[in-house]
Amino acid sequence: MHDQPEASAQQVRAIDRPIVMIPVFALIAAVGGLFGSFTVSANLLLHAIAGTMVWLGLSGRAGRRVAPLRLSRSSLWWLAPVLVFGLTELFAFLHTDRVAYPTLSLLADPVLDNYLPRAASYFGWLAGFWALVRR
Amino acid sequence: MKAVILSLFALGAVAFVALSWLSRRDGSKVPGFGDMAGFVMAYRVGRVPVGRVAVLGFWWWLGWHFFCR
């Protein structure tokens, strides 16, 4: 009677399919790009999305890829960009002259004031969040 | 000083792209960024998924910082 595998175990869920998730993220990003900084709408949308993502990530409901148990010594190369970004940001942040010592977010602000770059960045943030949730 | 800071941010971005490219080559010993993230996120203290909470929390803060303030 049970020659066939359980259908539910073989089904690819909607959230596993990029063709489903990419339009969803594009729609959210299109809306999120409309809201400017320091607005209630921007905060409500972002915290609702981030809260959902974190819940999915911590509960494991979105599924996870297998994480490597150990890394090779070559993985230390990743410290290079992390340290360059982190130390530069810290160095700039510790100075009060924001014109001569701009932080990354201050450099991004004029770009993110425009709808298309803001929506595109929002999409990138969502896609990155989703990739992390599934790790 | 602004030019120096811009150059350092650019250097960090180039290093990130270069490592991502290197990690995708056949037989590469450099793990991909996803594997690095997965390794960090797998860190636990007892039953508490410290790595997962830290990474997801950082990404939450990053979005709020850039899009809400």
Short description:
With 135 residues, chain A is mainly alpha-helical. Chain A has helices spanning 7-10, 18-32, 40-59, 79-93, 104-112, 115-133. In chain B, 25% of the residues are buried.
Q: Which series of helices and strands of chain B comes N to C?
A: HHH
Largest sheet of chain A: none
What percent of the residues of chain B sit in helical stretches (DSSP H or I)? over 70%
The biggest sheet of chain B, with number of strands, parallel, antiparallel or mixed sense and barrel status, is:
none
Element string of chain A (H = helix, E = strand): HHHHHH
Count interface residues per chain for the largest interface.
Answer: A-B, 51 and 41 residues
The proportion of residues in beta strands of chain B is under 5%
Q: Which strand-content bin applies to the residues of chain A?
A: under 5%
Tally of strands of chain A:
0
Which structural class should the secondary elements of chain B be placed in? mainly alpha
CA-based gyration radius of chain B:
16 Å
Number of helices of chain B: 3
Unreliable residue runs of chain A: none
Task: Give the structural class of chain A.
Answer: mainly alpha
Task: Output the number of helix runs of chain A.
Answer: 6
Care to describe what's here?
The complex is a heterodimer of chains A (135) and B (69). Chain A has 135 residues and is mainly alpha-helical. Chain A is 61% helix and 0% strand. Chain A has helices at 7-10, 18-32, 40-59, 79-93, 104-112, 115-133. In chain A, helix 2 packs across helix 6 and helix 3 runs parallel beside helix 6. Chain B is 71% helix and 0% strand. The mean pLDDT of chain B is 94. The interface between A and B is large, with 51 and 41 residues.
